């Protein structure tokens, strides 16, 4: 990493590091007895978005998150972590199932964004994302979100409406990628470092803005330098936050979620 670059673009590079732990790594290190569920019961399964039940420190929980894929074959299978409408519908079906059995849901965000292909638009990408935003805001069960890598636009937000939002210190969360922003504003993607600074997409920026609730430290050198330690630190943070929200009655959680959403944009 070039230390002469702005800190924000350094964090972008860290969030995209090829060795950074993905959802599958956290499932292995943090959870026990993970059982994956497939399909949206309308069209197909989407491997870019993983859902399943697992044991987390004695709690039976639901796990939802994007999976990018480590090698070329897996990246193609997982569509580089960019879900299609089928993925978001699968996630919502799964969260409703978790609500039926009164199981908390933990979501893990790591996506450059929702898949922008023609087939995704034809299958109702915008509606699927919007439906998730609406329904997640009304869930009666506790929901805790962890942003573990990239958090890109509506593709990330569609599983990010929760009671508590945690963010790893080198993760990013933004309405658009720095390259996309630079291409729109200056017609030059090479100005992405400038765009990254302007977007305020780092964990400290987002914490100050009240968009996230907690910054989770990473091992020295970043989560990719020691994935097991990164998982151990995140494990403890999620456990603490989950215990906090589980003490609240459902109506209180829903009200707090609503108030939090209404407050976004006010610093």
Sequence-ordered SSE layout with sheet pairings:
Layout: H1 7-15, H2 23-30, E1 32-37, E2 49-56, E3 59-66, H3 72-77, H4 85-100, E4 105-111, H5 118-122, H6 125-138, E5 143-152, H7 153-157, E6 164-168, E7 172-174, H8 178-186, H9 192-199, H10 203-208, E8 214-216, H11 227-246, H12 250-263
Parallel strand pairs: 3-4, 4-5, 5-6, 5-7, 6-8
Antiparallel strand pairs: 1-2, 2-3
Could you characterize the architecture of this molecule?
This protein is globular. 45% of the residues lie in helices and 19% in strands. Strands 1, 2, 3, 4, 5, 6, 7 and 8 form an eight-stranded mixed β-sheet that branches. The model has no long low-confidence stretch (mean pLDDT 94). It is an alpha/beta fold and 267 residues long.
* Total beta-strand segments: 8
User: What percent of residues adopt helix (DSSP H or I)?
Assistant: 40-55%
| Total helical elements | 12
Oligomer: single chain
Sheet/helix structural class? alpha/beta
**Shape annotation:** globular
Strand-and-helix sequence, N→C?
A: HHEEEHHEHHEHEEHHHEHH
Low-confidence stretches: none
**Whole-number average pLDDT?**
94
């Amino acid at each position: 990493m070039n230390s002469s670059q702005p800190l924000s673009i350094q964090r972008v590079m860290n969030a995209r590091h090829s060795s950074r732990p993905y959802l599958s790594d956290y499932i292995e290190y943090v959870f026990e007895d993970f059982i994956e569920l497939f399909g949206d019961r309308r069209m197909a399964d989407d491997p870019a978005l993983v859902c399943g039940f697992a044991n987390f420190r004695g709690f039976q929980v639901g796990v939802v998150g994007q999976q990018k894929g480590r090698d070329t074959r897996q990246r193609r299978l997982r569509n580089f972590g960019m879900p299609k409408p089928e993925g978001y519908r699968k996630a919502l079906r799964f969260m409703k199932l978790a609500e039926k059995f009164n199981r908390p849901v933990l979501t893990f965000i790591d996506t450059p964004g929702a898949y922008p292909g023609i087939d995704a638009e034809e299958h109702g990408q915008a509606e699927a994302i919007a439906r998730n935003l609406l329904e997640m805001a009304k869930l009666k069960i506790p929901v805790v979100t962890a942003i573990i890598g990239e958090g890109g636009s509506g593709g990330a937000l569609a599983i990010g409406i929760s009671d508590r939002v945690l963010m790893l210190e080198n993760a990013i969360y933004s309405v658009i990628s720095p390259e996309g922003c630079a291409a729109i504003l200056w017609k030059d993607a090479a100005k992405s470092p400038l765009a990254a600074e302007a977007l305020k997409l780092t964990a400290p920026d987002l914490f100050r803005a009240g968009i996230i609730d907690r910054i989770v430290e990473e091992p020295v050198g970043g989560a990719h330098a020691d994935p097991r330690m990164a998982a151990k630190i995140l494990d403890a943070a999620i456990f603490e936050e989950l215990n906090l929200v589980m003490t609240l009655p459902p109506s209180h959680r829903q009200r707090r979620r609503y108030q939090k959403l209404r407050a976004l944009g006010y610093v």
